[in-house]
Write a structure and sequence with these properties.
Distance between the termini: 106 Å
Largest sheet: 6 strands, antiparallel
Number of helices: 8
């Protein structure tokens, strides 16, 4: 029995070529059966082996040869450059403190260390009629006030309600201001989100007014008075009611603005010339009445009343020789 196998056309051609070789002659195999490799193909494994040896020698020798030798300079660390204070500007720091009951019981001890003679007798009487108390601290802060600041800071870090600002309607805070003579700043004290707040104050005669969602604040202007001295002006004010649109003239142009109704107590305006490091203290009178009760009294989450102190410190002047550049030194633009 003969079995016929399937052969492809290439196999048939190779078989016929093999049969065509004469007997006893030198056999030459067809190229289709044993294809010859090119010279480049034969050298490729040798070239790959050379690359592998080079890489292996680099890995075994390590990276020490590639690193620079000797002591290297420290890395360059670029920080945010603080712009210099212009010569016509001054730097003012404000701190708003809410006093705990044990601290409030020592307020009289603090006022005994503060100079309250910095205002005229007439102004001092008007301030007292409105429940306000003003004084100045020259040089360093009293140790009692420094202790309060440290205790308030520790409480701020350890109490969740204090950290989130939910412990009272007023949070302890500090601000840094850059003031120019032609720019008025607003130091916000309290925002009362109530529809009808009755405000009693004294303006030659006792007065009263019902306010809708009032905001109590001080307007502040400050400018250099001389070398290392500044002229500071503070005026208590309150705004209330709904926003109203109006047109004002500023810089020879008409500008539409939205403002609330405002009462500014110009007869209680405070004005001093402060030396660098001087701190002004503003607070309520001991009986908590009139404007002092509205400006400097907060309500806690437990519906308790706590007094407030406002510290305003003159920290730096652009015209101060200590901070200003020498005549031969120029700022690189």
């Amino acid at each position: 029995m003969i079995r016929t196998l399937y052969r492809s056309p290439v196999d048939e051609r190779n078989h016929s070529e093999l049969q065509a070789i004469p007997s006893g002659s030198e056999a030459t195999f067809p190229s289709s059966l044993f294809p010859q490799k090119s010279l480049a193909s034969a050298q490729a494994p040798r070239r790959c082996l050379g690359y592998s040896l080079v890489i292996l020698s680099l890995v075994s020798s390590g990276c020490a040869a590639w690193l620079p030798s000797g002591e290297q300079p420290p890395p360059i660390i670029k920080g945010i450059r603080t712009p210099s204070l212009p010569t016509e500007s001054v730097a003012i720091e404000t701190i708003l403190l809410r006093l705990a009951p044990d601290q409030a019981s020592q307020l009289d001890d603090l006022w005994a260390l503060i100079d309250e003679q910095i205002v005229s007798p007439d102004l001092r009487i008007r301030l007292d009629k409105n429940g306000l108390r003003i004084g100045k601290i020259s040089g360093g802060l009293p140790s009692l006030l420094e202790t309060w600041l440290r205790e308030i800071e520790e409480k701020q870090d350890g109490d969740t309600l204090e950290t989130t600002g939910l412990a009272s309607d007023l949070a302890n805070r500090s601000m840094h201001w850059r003031c120019r003579a032609d720019v008025e700043k607003e130091i916000n004290i309290r925002n009362v989100a109530e529809p009808n707040v009755t405000l009693f104050y004294h303006d030659e005669v006792p007065k009263g007014k019902s306010l809708n969602s009032p905001r109590f604040f001080f307007t502040m202007t400050a400018m250099p008075a001389s070398q290392a001295a500044a002229k500071l002006k503070l005026t208590p004010a309150v705004e209330f009611g709904e926003l109203k649109s109006r047109v004002i003239v500023r810089d020879a142009a008409l500008r539409p603005v939205s403002q609330r109704e405002k009462i500014q107590f110009d007869d209680l305006q405070l004005q001093w010339v402060l030396n660098q490091g001087d701190c002004v203290v503003l607070g309520p009178s001991s009986d908590m009445r009139s404007l002092g009760a509205e400006f400097f009294q907060s309500q806690t989450i437990d519906h308790e009343r706590e007094p407030i102190l406002l510290l305003v410190r003159f920290s730096q002047s652009g015209s101060d020789g200590i901070f200003s550049k020498s005549p031969g030194e120029k700022t690189a633009e």
